[in-house]
Amino acid sequence: MLKRTLMINGLEKKLVVDPEETLANVLRNQLYLTGTKVGCNQGQCGCCSVILDSKVVRSCITKMKRVPENAGICTIEGIGRPGHLHALQLAWMVHGGAQCGFCTPGFLMNSYALLEKHDNPDDETIKEWLQSNLCRCTGYEGIREAVQYAIKNKNKVIFFMGFSVLD
Asked: What is the pTM of this model?
């Protein structure tokens, strides 16, 4: 067994884990952060994407023995908060970025990382960044439009259906 202290969504968590267990399974089954989805379980679809020390990783293939002590992990539960959506979350609703919603957490985490690295990415950069995630329902247009909308509105407070949107 492996002892790890991690900062997950800004909160310190002390864990005892199997070093061969995946980060996705620890998040979902030990910490009950079920927003991270597991699609292909092979690191190809991107549903399980989380941010590990400022880098997008596929949590379904990231073994806990590879997660460093005191690592910072951000999951879908770590962006926005009840009553205060992140601009990306509102954008997904406004532009129909989700259909079935299964791939949404991975796309949102990838988009969140994009906005952390690039203040104002152009359309080509957005397309390149999002091509690592797969969706079986959409034509990706709503997802791309949602990211563009979030870029334009990320520093504004917007009220939508009783929620405020904060960057």
From this structure: 0.88
